[in-house]
Fold this protein.
Amino acid sequence: MKAAYVVDKEKVEIRDIPVPEIKDDEVLIEVRTVGVCGSDLHLFKGTHPFRKPPAILGHEVAGDIVKVGNNVKNLKIGDRVTVEPHIGCGECEFCKQDLVNLCTAKVAPGTTGWNGTFAEYFNAPEKYVHKIADGVSYEIATLIEPLAVAVHAVDRITVKEKDTLAILGSGTVGLLTLVAAREMGYKNIICTDTQEFNLEMAKKQGAVLTLNPLKDDVVKEIRDFTNGRGVDVALIVADAKNIVDQASSIVRKRGEVGMVSMITEQIPVYPYNFVFNELTLFGAMTYETKDFVKATEIVNSGVDLSDFVTQVLPLEKSQEALSILSEKKENVVKVIVTTNTK
């Protein structure tokens, strides 16, 4: 089968490798679509913390089951599926609480022992495979994985009120966080981004206020919108150096700030806001299985995410797909790579 490898910094190569052998508890999926994610960019640019070249790209996937292991009970050949792409050790304190996302020994696609999804075939344990509805396209089903990230972020909120929520950063995950929050009952959702295309997308998805921090005084505009009170929660889904301070300045007393974006460098933070206003700061790491199930339910219910698929390229053009997301010379939300097209 063909697979797209990052073989060096910003260099992708298509290689022929064997089709994966499946274990008794696994299924073999004929891949139809895969998504280009920010973590793929980290591998592409040589900055990923644990995935190093040569490695197969990808962890977002949709396709058809073509083979099932002897112990598989609830899936069959022909099922249209997506995959929750992590396998926990099953023994640690986190796995025992169904917190596979926090397992320090978890295995992810593109690491030793599990190929990435930028390939014609992909194997996965039945436990982590989820069915997609017949009316959902493979392209849209590929968005279930990043939508699960968004669902988990919103689910981590403990503030009871669902009146006002600010999403700082309206890229792929930020926009999907808007969708998740909307579907989970949040009323007034405010979105920020430096790209006008993303802000237009946010408006189309129901944001009541959109702000460009390069042009607008975000703190003043949000304070004015909330009559000086501030939003109940701010979710950080971008990595600007002032973004934590911005978030803490727009949240009401005893509100919450959630970190979704993985900011891997030290940035300045003014802690006084957190103390003076008794704010809570929390992190949101990928997702739990229940979040992935919820995201699958949202997509299977028919929620329209088609606007988010902005580019579709074949596997042979994986290098170009990575470059599109990296350089952002054109309007882009989600780049989809196709293989085994019907």
About this structure: The chain has ten helices and 16 strands. Residues 144-155 form the longest helix (12 residues). The chain has two domains: 2-147+287-338, 157-283. The chain has a mean pLDDT of 95.
